[in-house]
């Protein structure tokens, strides 16, 4: 198969990191009644959403969550939109405005089985960034949570959960986050701990992810 030449070569490293991030989320939720979508194209926009979507796969009741979860994901809603910024990108005001825009489009287009919009409280908004957004923290107040490196931020009538991967606690449960740190010691630790996870859980996703870090 001939590989297609990307329209913008400068974007290729970002695409690779985003793809790997999505694969890690797929592995985290493997075996649980949650769907993780890496790419979503909406007819009204004719473009792929630059977010990952974590959605409960079972309607009508609270789907159980994997245990343990990486820090910051403990209060997932039925539908969760995650914007991810790798080491090559900055989480800024535009990024958060864009996340709200994605939410608005998704809620308009992706209707429930009754062909109606999902309720407001069905959605959770997440901004995951490798680097701490210093410019954003100076302009707006980040609210610390019980988790190290995890903040809440009121934004445009919504509450965005912000997860900074270079700041999260160094703990085995955070191995999927540590893989995407820009700090070598964290990455090394995450890779060692991630290898120690039971392979039978999702062997295919496990190896597809590791191939991108070796």
How would you sum up this structure, described in words?
- This protein has 214 residues and is of the alpha+beta class.
- 30% of the residues lie in helices and 20% in strands.
- It has 6 helices and 9 strands.
- It has a 7-stranded mixed sheet, with helices on both faces.
- It is globular.
- Mean pLDDT is 81; it is low at 1-11.
- How much of the sequence lies in strands comes to 15-25%
Head-to-tail CA distance between termini:
23 Å
How many individual helices? 6
Helix content: 25-40%
Radius of gyration: 17 Å
Main sheet overview: 7 strands, mixed
User: What spatial order of strands do you see in the largest sheet?
Assistant: 1-4-5-6-9-8-7
Write the H/E string, N to C: HEEEEEHEHEEEHHH
Question: How would you sum up the global shape?
Answer: globular
Low-confidence stretches: 1-11
Counted beta strands: 9
Overall average residue pLDDT: 81
Coarse structural class? alpha+beta
Task: Give the tags.
alpha+beta; 214 residues
Summarize the structure.
This protein is of the alpha+beta class. Helix content is 30%, strand content 20%. The longest helix is centred in the N-terminal third of the chain and has 17 residues, at 12-28.
What's the layout of helices and strands?
Elements: H1 12-28, E1 34-37, E2 41-42, E3 47-48, E4 51-56, E5 79-85, H2 93-109, E6 123-129, H3 134-139, E7 143-144, E8 150-155, E9 158-164, H4 175-178, H5 184-195, H6 203-210
Parallel strand pairs: 5-6, 6-9
Antiparallel strand pairs: 1-4, 2-3, 4-5, 7-8, 8-9
Helix pairs in contact: 1-6
């Amino acid at each position: 198969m001939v590989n297609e030449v990307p329209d913008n070569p400068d974007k290729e490293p970002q695409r690779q990191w985003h793809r790997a991030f999505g694969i890690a989320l797929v592995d985290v939720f493997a075996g649980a009644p949650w769907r993780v979508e890496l790419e979503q194209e909406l007819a009204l926009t004719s473009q792929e959403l630059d977010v990952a979507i974590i959605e409960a796969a079972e309607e009508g009741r609270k789907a159980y969550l994997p245990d343990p979860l990486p820090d910051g994901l403990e209060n997932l809603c039925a539908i969760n939109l995650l914007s991810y910024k790798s080491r090559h990108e900055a989480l800024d005001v535009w990024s958060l405005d864009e996340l709200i825009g994605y939410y608005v489009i998704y809620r308009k287009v992706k209707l429930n089985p009754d062909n109606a919009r999902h309720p407001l409280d069905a959605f959770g908004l997440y901004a995951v960034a490798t680097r701490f957004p210093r410019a954003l923290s100076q302009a707006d107040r980040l609210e610390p949570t019980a988790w190290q490196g995890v903040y809440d931020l009121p934004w445009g009538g919504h509450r965005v959960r912000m997860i900074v991967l270079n700041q999260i606690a160094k703990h085995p449960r955070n191995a999927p986050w540590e893989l995407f740190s820009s700090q070598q010691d964290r990455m090394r630790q995450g890779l060692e701990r991630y290898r120690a996870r039971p392979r039978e859980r999702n062997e295919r996703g496990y190896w597809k992810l590791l191939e991108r870090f070796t």
